[in-house]
Each structure stands twice: as structure tokens, then as C-alpha cells.
Write a structure and sequence with these properties.
The complex is a heterodimer. Chain A is mainly alpha-helical. Chain A is built from 22 helices and two strands. Chain A has a domain of about 200 residues. Helices cover about 75% and strands about 5% of the residues of chain A. The C terminus of chain A is likely disordered. Chain B is mainly alpha-helical. In chain B, helix 16 packs antiparallel against helix 17. Classes of the chains: A mainly alpha, B mainly alpha.
């Protein structure tokens, strides 16, 4: 079981999608039910990992490593550690929620929609558990396909512009990443004499400083666009505004985290020297993202676009944490990835629910809703509080750890970053006031119905998690701690070794003899 | 019982959950019982803890109870745990005691409101948060309570959310205090990296050895924490939210914006007295901000016409007194004033609520007058509150305020100027309180004709809480009668374990004469204030109008509260929104998307041009073949 569980949860959704193909599309309810049950089963299976996860082990667990295309050194290597564990859980959790939330929102081409959702789930989980660069790249790109359709077919009025923009932005980044993966492959061959794309093998290869710079940039660009880091963020509001609710939930909840995850899983351990050099630049971009995203969010007229810009701000926090490079800040960053998935996911769900009723998302079309739909407003308030990081909710634990850690690395960054907390309160409370408070004066709003049972079922689990992580985050933090410590330690060791041995060869070291000695040293010391 | 101290905050939390989740199902009556009962039992437990604490010798009155680990990451390890010591016990008693009385009042006051359940669940949540704040044994849990009370304040100020002004006020309160909270959070973080811990015991015991006296680090920590206190306790320059907060229901103003939450800042400064004593500069700043706020807010209160706003500015001013006390090192005095203020100010707000209740929601004191005969109970209770806050001898406020003035004068951190400001403020306080009192209850009736027939005294559920608080306003100060008046200063002694040094007996022996003299002076200035108010508003009501005419400029400035709100709006809010708009329209849309869409457009244009080469005519292709051949030939020939 332990060896196969990752394969199962990665491909079970795909199998589900395959089954859906054989169901006649007239049976819309059957299709929905099958899709939901598959995603729910997958979530339950992923809980198996959570409960059997050994929080003492810092390395990979539930690993499976089989040759795939042996002649090229491509393997089917999956594994999970404290960093990816919660992102996988978040994915399986949010996919179930997202499918349940589209029950009545999607009225046409339901089969294609559900197939895309399940296909997307496979892609997302694959990205988080792949330990082979080709496999990773495969999932990374594969995931674009269902998302392209989700926005392009079931999206809003400007769906074509949005979906093309989304795909082009992402592709633009990932293309350079592919080149970088190949270069790494050859550098590793030169060092070791093996052809392999296995991440854990390549991690042991010291990369010359000159090459590190370019390779880092190639990877970082792909990830920065995904995060999205300022100034690569403009695809996000368009994609979110046009995407169907479930698409937005998964886009914000999971897809953005692939960027931040990529920095932690790839950029940091592969290119620590350049990563360290780039800390100021990326921290400042992250801070700009926090403040800029919040300010632009404040003046949006469309709720969905407000939430989209708030994501830019929140992900800025995550980036700030990762680039502060200490245990607290990185753990805070990972926790905040999960938190953002929950709270922003829930915000998109809520916006979707009101859109389904009113067919508008303009803030000015609402007002006084608290009187008409009090349950909706109460749920909205709780999620909002989580989003602005009120103590007792999940958002606080994440943000506080990030600022705490950042403060240790650089006081100025922490002081600038923490202003985001006030700005979040401003844009969120202002929006809430305009939608929920005031007089219920628009006749359309007087006919609104409050949340139904299905919608409550969708939201309650998120609310419970919001408070669980806020009040007792230990099960989360303790599981990620060993892996975070290991990544930071390895990066530091590699950084020092590379610096000490001055592996300076600029020309990608194609001609170099293997740095056998160094490899052994790292290998023995740290792996 | 001390082991079960978590019951004190837990019971109101339970009440919140019950009313919040099931309120509508269990009905109004039971919801009221749940709301009041949970706080009442919490008060009983607090009383029991207090009595148990008294049974221990003074030096052993200290307990910490850890419940579970909250946040743990690397060496950052924070528990959910409570601390029981004299200071937290005093705060517990005030919060749960005054809280209970106000819950009871609310049963009558909010009886007809459709948001009854929501109201009680929020109020219980507030009591829970406030108790967490004062009982926490570490800074992070304190912060949880700190933000929690801010949330409840937001929710309760905007309780009548259909009113635009109420929703605005709630938002303003939350955001303004959050600006202060930034400093607070940074202060906590700095504390952690300095001490590697956030538990009070660890921090305070290490502080004198880890930090140098008057060093930059300790000054930074204390000032950052004070920034949080400035926000929450409505001091200059972040006080602007508190007057607007009066949009909330009156009992809310009484509980949150007079008796408890706004005093949280004073509590924090007192709790961290070990740190402040190491930072003389910060102490000085605390004292100056306190004194400045005291006189500034009092000056605004002189001319306002909205009864609740007068009380709000009065609260700001009294909080200034408390900070003045802390700033001159008299932490126990600050807490003593917090204690007495909780009674009389809560009483005054409840009284204002009763007046509003009688006058169908009227708040303008120009439309009141001669209500004594209609509202006898309210009249007497209000009078007790007014006498207490003005500092008439042997009413509670007298002892606490006088002690602050004396300490401001005599303490090594104090000085003549600080005393003088406090002294003048005392006179102003007496004036505006009696102006308020006379305008409401005495003189000629200016009540509108259609309201008149409906004037009625409040129901028992409202008057009984007022009577209880009135009694406390009268006698509440007697537990802290100074030595100079033959008292024993029980209050200061009880707290002395926390504040170590205790009442400065050596100072008192040497200057009993000076203290008596200052006491007489301050009683005099209070009497003058009262006399002027009587003259203005009872015997010669034309006088203030003439004065306002004569000094139009200053009067307008005071009436418009020094135009600070207008200044903040023009100088900060407006430019901020414009900047955000510019970011969006210019950077996002014009530059970044312009670049992205522009490159797509240019690419499209290039392919549009390049496409034309492919004409589909063989002769064109033949021509380009020929041209190519010529170029290649020319290259080889001319090389």
C-alpha cells in the first residue's frame, strides 16, 4: 500500500475521468455523482497518507521509483515529504469541494466539465509528488490543458482572451524551464557519468555558479509567473474573473501554489548560491506584491477581481516567507499556502454562490445582504476574518510565522510586509460593508435565498479547518518541520561547498571532469 | 478553583457558541439567560479564584495554568495558558463583573431588537476575548484576545449595520486600531527574538539582565507595544475611532468603549512595567501622550452636544490619565483609576442609554432638560457617576484621580507641568460633566413636543444594573484610600506583588503636607468647574451662547474637533485611494498589460507583413529565387 498509494491518488481521478467517458451525457446527475464520489474517495485515500505519515522522517516517504524510459534516464519516481504533504491534501480536499460546488452552476457540457476537473486533479497531484524532472514537467504542462478548457468553455464573457492569456503566460515561463531541465541533465551527466532526470540524484550535483545563475532564472521565471509575483500577475485577475467558480477555486487554491512550491522544491536546493543572491530582489518583489496587490484589490469594482488581487497580496506573503530562509518563515509560508487555498477558495465559492443567484459580481449591485441572507453573510465574515489573519483562525498562524521569521532575516522586509495586514483589513472590510451592510434597497436583492444544504456542506469543512489550523496547528507544523529543516540545511551546505570549491566554470562545465570529491562530500555529509 | 481558571473565559465562549449557533431555536428568553448566565458564572468563578488567592501569602499569589501547545515552529513554542496573579484577578473581576451587569441591562435595552441573539452572542464573544486578553500568560495569547476584542468591537459598533454611519464607524474602529496593532505585533516579534520566549515570567525575569537600562532595543520594544496601546486605548493620534464608535448600542459603549476594551492598552503597559521601567524614554513618551490626550479630549468635550460623544471624549481623556499614571511609574494608580473608571463610566453610558430610551433615541442635549421628574432613578444614578468622575471627595473617582495627580507631581518621572495639565483637565472634566448633567436633568425642558408624552423611566432590568454601578461608583474607591487620609491603600498593596516596589511609603511620609495641599487645590478646581457649569447652564443660560458668539473661531475649532478627521481624510485617505487607482490604471493596465498585449500585437503585425510574402504566385517565388541566387553569387564573387 505504502508504495502504491501515491500512484493511486494521482491516477484515480484520471481513471474516474475515463469511466465518465462511457456514461451517456443525458445522465447528468450520474456523471456528477460519479465525479464527486471519485474525488471524495481520492480525498479519503489521501488521508491515509496523512495518518501514516511519519513526522520524524525528513526525507521522502511513500516513495516509488520505477524506470520509465531507461535509455534517457527518465524514471517514474514519486514521493512525498512534509512540504508536499499538505499541498496534496489541499488538492484532494479542494477538488471534492469544487466538484460539489459546481452541482447547479454548470448547466451545459457537464460531462466534459467533470472530465476536465478530474484530469486537472491528476495533473495537480502529479506536480506535487513527482521526483523526476521529466515527470514533473509532464504534469506541469498536462495540467494546463484541462484548465484551458475550464476557462475557455465554461468561463464568462471574455473567456477566450483570459484563457489564452493564462496559457501563454504560463507556457512562456515553462518553456525556458524545459531548457534548464535539459542543461541540468547534461551537467549531471558530466559530473557523474549517469544520464538521469531523477531529482534526488540531480540534487547531489553541484552546479557551477555561472550556470546556476541562468538555470535559476529559467526556473524562477516559470514559478514567478505561476505564483504570480509582481509584475507577472496580470493574467491572474483576468483568468479568475472569467473562470467558472470551481476553476477559480482550484486556480487560486492549488495552481498558484505550484509556483511557490517550485521555489522551495527546485530553485532553492538546486541553485542555492544564486537563490541566496536573489533573496533581496525576490523579497522586494514579494513586498511590492503584498502592498500593491492589496491596494489594487481595494479599488476593484468586481468582487472576484478583488479576491484575485488579494491573492497577489497573500502569495506575496508566502514568497516573503520562503525567501527569508529560516524554519519559522518557511513553515509559515507552507502553512500560508494551505491557508490561502482554504480561505481564498472559500471566498471564490461564496462569490460563486451569490453570482449563481444574482448573475452579477459588481459590488455596487449589492448592499444590505446581511438582512436578507444572514447565513451567507456569517460564513462570508468568518472566511474574511481568516483571510485577514485574525488570531484564532488559520491565517494568523501562517502570517505571524512568516513575519516572525522574516524579521529575523531582515527587519525592514518584515516591517514593510506587515503593513499588508492592515491593507487586507481595509479592502476586505470595505468590500464587506458595501455588499452586506447598509440598506437592502435593490429589489433584485430582496428575492435572494439563503444558503441551501449542499452549499453549507461545501463550506462547513473549510470553516472547521480554518479554526482547526488557527487553534491547533501543531499537527500541521510538526509534520512539515523535519522536511523544512532538511531543505534549509542542505541548501546551506551546498551553498558553502560550492562557494568553497569555487566551481566557477562559466561555460556550463560541459568539458569538466566530474567533481567526484565534492559529490562524495555532500553525499556523505547531508544525504 | 485556580486550576479551573480556564472556566472564566470558557463559559462566555460557550454562551457565544450556544447563542450564535442555536439562538433562534432556543428563543429569546433562554438566549438572554444563556448570555447573562454564562458571564455570571464566569464572575462567580473569578470571585472564587480571588478569594483563594487572598488565602495565600502575598508573595505566593502567582499561578500559571497551561492548557495545550498552540503554535510550535523551530524554537518558537507558544502555549495556550493562563496566569493568575493580583493584576489579572483585578481585571478578571472588572471584566466579568461589569460585564455581567451590562449583560443584564441589555436584556431590557435590546429586548425589542430583532438582532437580539446576534447581540448576545457577540457580547459573550467579547467577554471571552477580553478575559483571554487579561488572563493570558504569554504575549501571543494576549494578542489573540487583543484582536478578538477588536473584532467584537467592530461587530458591535456596526450592530445596526443598515445605518451607513454605524457600518462606517465599525470599519474605522477596526482599521485604526489595526494600525496600532502592527506596532504591537512587531513589538511581540522583537520580544521573541530578544528573549527566545513569549511567556511573561520568562521575559520579565530575564529583562533586567538581557537588556541594558535605557538601551535602544528596550526603547524600541516598549514603544512598539505602546503603539498598540495607543490604538486600542484611543490616544493621540489614533483616538479618532472612539467617538464614532458611539454608533453602537449604549450598553456596548458602556462595556467595550468605556469599562473594558479601551483600557486594554493601560493593562498592557502595566503588565509590562518591568520593561517600561527599563526604558525611561518610553515612560516619558507614555506620560506625555497620556497628559496631552487627557487635556485635548477634555477640551473637545467642553462644547459637544451629543451626550454619548461627550462621554466618549471623556473616556479618551480619562484613559489619558491612566497612561499619565503609568508614564510616571505609578502603575498601580493607573490600574486603580481603570478600576474606578470602569464603574462610573459604564454607569454614565448606561444612564445615557436610559435617557435615550426615554426620549425615543434622542442624543442632542439641546433637546433635553428637566428630566429629573420623569427619570428619578436615572437622575440619582447619573448624579453618582458625575460626582465620581468629577472627583468630588469620597466618591470613587476622587481617590484614583487624586493619586494620579499626586504621583504626576511627586514621582521622579513626573513633574510640575504634567501635574498642571492633569490639574487643569480635572477642572475641565468637572465642567463638562456638570454641563451634561444640568442640560439633561435640570433647567427648562427643551424636549420636543411629540416626544414628551412618551417619556418614561427605564424598566427594572435596566435600573437595577445602574443602581449597582452607582453604589460601586460611590464606594469603589474606598479600597484605595491613601495614607494621608488615614486609609490603608488595600488596592495598591494587593497589586504590589505585581509591581514589586509597592506604594512608595517613603515619599508619602516626607510630603504628606504637599499631598494634602495638592488635594485641596484639585478639589477647588473641581468646584470651580462645577460652579461655572451651574452658572452657564442653570442660572444664566444665555452666557455660553454669548461666549460662543464672541470667540467664534476657537469655538468652531473645538466644535469640529480640531478638524482632525477632515485632515486625516484629506491627507491620508484621499491620496491613498488615488495612488491605488493610479497603480491599477497605469501600472497594471497600461504598462504591464500594455506590454503583454503589445507584444502580441506586434507579433501579429509582423506575421501580417510576413504573410504577404506568400502571395501564391509562382512568378513571385521565381523572382525571389533569382534574387537569392544573385545575392549568393555576389557574395562569393566579391569576397
Amino acid at each position: 500500500m505504502d508504495q502504491n498509494i501515491l500512484t493511486i491518488i494521482t491516477f484515480l481521478p484520471l481513471a474516474g475521468a475515463f469511466i465518465l467517458l462511457f456514461i451517456n451525457r443525458v445522465f447528468a446527475n450520474t456523471i456528477k455523482a460519479v465525479a464527486f464520489l471519485v474525488s471524495l474517495l481520492n480525498f479519503l485515500l489521501s488521508l491515509y497518507i496523512y495518518f501514516n505519515f511519519n513526522s520524524k522522517i525528513s526525507g521522502m516517504q511513500f516513495e516509488i521509483n520505477l524506470p520509465w524510459i531507461e535509455s534517457l534516464g527518465i524514471s517514474y519516481h514519486l514521493g512525498i515529504d512534509g512540504i508536499s504533504l499538505f499541498l496534496v491534501l489541499l488538492t484532494t480536499f479542494l477538488t471534492s469541494i469544487a466538484i460539489l460546488s459546481s452541482w447547479t452552476a454548470i448547466k451545459e457540457k457537464i460531462k466534459g466539465y467533470m472530465v476536465s476537473m478530474l484530469f486537472l486533479e491528476t495533473g495537480m497531484i502529479g506536480v506535487f509528488v513527482s521526483l523526476d524532472l521529466v515527470l514533473f514537467y509532464f504534469f506541469w504542462e498536462a495540467m494546463l490543458v484541462p484548465m484551458y478548457f475550464l476557462i475557455g468553455i465554461w468561463g464568462g464573457p471574455r473567456k477566450i482572451y483570459a484563457t489564452i492569456k493564462f496559457v501563454l503566460f504560463t507556457m512562456f515561463g515553462s518553456l525556458l524551464m524545459l531548457v534548464a531541465i535539459l542543461v541540468l541533465y547534461f551537467i549531471n551527466y558530466n559530473n557523474t557519468g549517469f544520464y538521469t532526470f531523477d531529482l534526488l540524484q540531480i540534487l547531489k550535483t553541484p552546479v557551477p555558479l555561472g550556470a546556476q545563475f541562468w538555470l535559476f532564472l529559467a526556473f524562477a521565471l516559470a514559478f514567478a509567473i505561476k505564483v504570480p509575483l509582481f509584475p507577472f500577475h496580470t493574467w491572474l485577475p483576468d483568468a479568475h474573473v472569467e473562470a467558472p467558480t470551481a476553476g477559480s477555486v482550484l486556480l487560486a487554491g492549488v495552481l498558484l501554489k505550484m509556483g511557490t512550491y517550485g521555489f522551495l522544491r527546485f530553485c532553492l536546493p538546486l541553485f542555492p548560491n544564486t537563490f541566496y543572491d536573489f533573496v533581496p530582489l525576490f523579497s522586494i518583489l514579494a513586498i511590492i506584491g503584498i502592498i500593491y496587490g492589496a491596494m489594487v484589490a481595494m479599488i476593484q469594482k468586481d468582487v472576484k477581481s478583488l479576491v484575485a488581487y488579494s491573492s497577489v497580496s497573500h502569495l506575496g506573503f508566502v514568497m516573503l516567507g520562503i525567501f527569508a530562509l529560516n524554519v519559522q518563515s518557511v513553515e509559515g509560508g507552507i502553512l500560508q499556502m494551505v491557508n490561502h487555498g482554504l480561505s481564498t477558495g472559500a471566498l471564490f465559492l461564496l462569490v460563486g454562490m451569490i453570482y449563481e443567484r444574482r448573475h452579477t459580481r459588481m459590488i455596487s449591485d449589492f448592499g444590505g445582504l446581511a438582512k436578507q441572507i444572514p447565513k451567507f453573510s456569517a460564513f462570508f465574515m468568518i472566511v474574511l476574518l481568516s483571510s485577514i489573519g485574525l488570531p484564532g483562525t488559520n491565517g494568523f498562524v501562517g502570517e505571524f510565522l512568516i513575519i516572525l521569521g522574516t524579521f529575523k532575516s531582515n527587519i525592514l522586509y518584515a516591517v514593510l510586509g506587515i503593513t499588508g495586514v492592515v491593507l487586507a483589513a481595509i479592502y476586505m472590510l470595505w468590500m464587506y460593508q458595501r455588499m452586506m451592510f447598509g440598506k437592502l434597497d435593490k429589489p433584485e436583492n430582496k428575492k435572494l435565498l439563503d444558503l441551501n444544504l449542499r452549499e453549507k456542506v461545501v463550506l462547513v469543512p473549510i470553516i472547521l479547518l480554518i479554526f482547526w489550523i488557527g487553534i491547533y496547528p501543531k499537527p500541521f507544523l510538526s509534520r512539515m518541520e523535519p522536511s523544512v529543516e532538511l531543505v534549509l540545511k542542505q541548501a546551506k551546505a551546498k551553498y558553502e561547498l560550492t562557494n568553497k570549491n569555487k566551481i566557477l566554470d562559466e561555460k556550463f562545465c560541459i568539458q569538466n571532469k566530474p567533481h567526484k570529491k565534492i559529490i562524495d562530500e555532500i553525499y556523505i555529509k547531508d544525504f | 478553583m485556580i486550576d479551573y481558571c480556564w472556566l472564566v473565559p470558557f463559559l462566555p465562549l460557550l454562551g457565544f457558541l450556544l447563542n450564535g449557533l442555536l439562538g433562534k431555536k432556543i428563543g429569546k428568553k433562554l438566549a438572554g439567560w444563556v448570555g447573562c448566565g454564562s458571564v455570571f458564572f464566569s464572575f462567580l468563578v473569578a470571585l472564587k479564584i480571588f478569594s483563594e488567592l487572598l488565602s495565600y501569602p502575598a508573595s505566593e499569589r502567582f499561578f500559571q495554568k497551561t492548557l495545550f501547545t498552540w503554535v510550535v515552529s523551530g524554537n518558537f513554542n507558544i502555549n495556550i495558558g493562563f496566569q493568575i496573579d493580583p493584576l489579572s484577578t483585578v481585571m478578571m473581576l472588572v471584566v466579568s463583573g461589569v460585564g455581567f451587569v451590562i449583560h443584564l441591562y441589555s436584556v431590557g435595552y435590546m429586548g425589542k431588537d430583532p438582532g437580539y441573539f446576534r447581540y448576545f452572542s457577540f457580547l459573550n464573544l467579547f467577554v471571552f476575548s477580553m478575559l483571554t486578553l487579561v488572563m493570558a500568560d504569554n504575549f501571543l495569547l494576549l494578542y489573540l484576545g487583543w484582536e478578538g476584542v477588536g473584532l467584537c468591537s467592530y461587530l458591535l459598533i456596526g450592530f445596526w449595520y443598515e445605518k451607513r454611519s454605524a457600518a462606517d464607524a465599525g470599519k474605522k474602529a477596526f482599521i485604526t486600531t489595526r494600525i496600532g496593532d502592527l506596532g504591537f505585533a512587531l513589538g511581540i516579534i522583537l520580544l521573541f527574538w530578544t528573549f527566545g520566549n513569549l511567556n511573561y515570567t520568562q521575559v520579565f525575569s530575564q529583562a533586567p539582565s538581557v537588556l541594558s537600562h535605557g538601551g535602544a532595543l528596550i526603547t524600541a520594544i516598549t514603544l512598539l507595544l505602546f503603539l498598540g496601546a495607543v490604538g486600542k486605548s484611543a490616544q493621540i493620534p489614533l483616538y479618532v475611532w472612539l467617538p464614532d464608535a458611539m454608533e453602537g448600542p449604549s450598553p456596548v459603549s458602556a462595556l467595550i468603549h468605556a469599562a473594558t476594551m479601551v483600557t486594554a492598552g493601560v493593562y498592557v503597559v502595566a503588565r509590562c512595567h518591568v520593561l517600561y521601567e527599563l526604558a525611561p524614554l518610553s515612560m516619558g513618551i507614555v506620560a506625555v501622550i497620556g497628559a496631552a490626550t487627557a487635556i485635548y479630549a477634555a477640551s473637545i468635550a467642553l462644547v459637544q452636544n451629543d451626550i454619548k460623544r461627550i462621554l466618549a471624549y471623556s473616556t479618551i481623556s480619562q484613559l489619558g490619565y491612566m497612561f499619565l499614571a503609568c508614564g510616571v511609574g505609578a502603575f498601580a494608580c493607573g490600574i486603580f483609576h481603570l478600576f474606578t473608571h470602569a464603574f462610573f463610566k459604564a454607569l454614565l453610558f448606561l444612564g445615557a442609554g436610559a435617557v435615550m430610551h426615554a426620549l425615543s433615541g434622542e442624543l442632542d442635549l439641546r433637546k433635553m432638560g428637566d428630566l429629573k421628574k420623569y427619570l428619578p432613578v436615572t437622575f440619582w444614578c447619573f448624579l453618582a457617576g458625575v460626582l465620581a468622575i468629577s472627583g468630588i471627595p469620597f466618591f470613587s473617582g476622587f481617590f484614583s484621580k487624586d493619586e494620579i495627580l499626586w504621583k504626576a507631581f511627586s514621582s521622579p518621572h513626573g513633574g510640575f507641568l504634567l501635574w498642571l495639565i492633569g490639574f487643569i483637565t480635572a477642572g475641565m472634566t468637572a465642567f463638562y460633566m456638570f454641563r451634561l448633567f444640568c442640560s439633561i436633568f435640570l433647567g427648562k425642558s427643551r424636549v420636543e413636543e411629540e416626544v414628551k408624552p412618551h417619556i418614561h423611566e427605564a424598566p427594572k432590568s435596566m435600573t437595577i444594573p445602574m443602581i449597582v454601578l452607582a453604589i460601586l461608583s460611590v464606594i469603589g474607591g474606598w479600597i484605595g484610600i491613601p495614607h494621608v487620609l488615614g486609609g490603608k491603600e488595600h488596592f495598591g498593596k494587593f497589586l504590589s506583588v505585581v509591581f514589586e516596589k509597592g506604594p512608595e511609603t517613603h515619599g508619602i511620609i516626607h510630603s504628606a503636607k504637599a499631598e494634602s495641599l495638592l488635594m485641596i487645590l484639585s478639589v477647588l478646581v473641581v468646584l470651580i468647574g462645577i460652579a461655572v457649569a451651574y452658572l452657564f447652564y442653570i442660572s444664566r443660560p444665555q452666557l455660553p451662547k454669548n461666549l460662543a458668539e464672541k470667540y467664534k473661531g476657537p469655538y468652531k475649532v473645538l466644535l469640529n474637533k480640531y478638524y482632525v478627521d477632515e485632515f486625516y481624510n484629506k491627507a491620508i485617505v484621499g491620496p491613498f485611494i488615488n495612488l491605488a487607482l493610479w497603480f491599477w490604471k497605469f501600472i497594471d493596465v497600461a504598462i504591464i498589460d500594455g506590454f503583454a498585449n503589445g507584444s502580441a500585437y506586434i507579433l501579429g503585425w509582423i506575421s501580417g507583413v510576413a504573410r504577404k510574402v506568400q502571395t501564391g504566385y509562382v512568378r513571385n517565388y521565381a523572382l525571389s529565387l533569382l534574387l537569392g541566387a544573385v545575392v549568393i553569387l555576389a557574395y562569393f564573387v566579391l569576397r
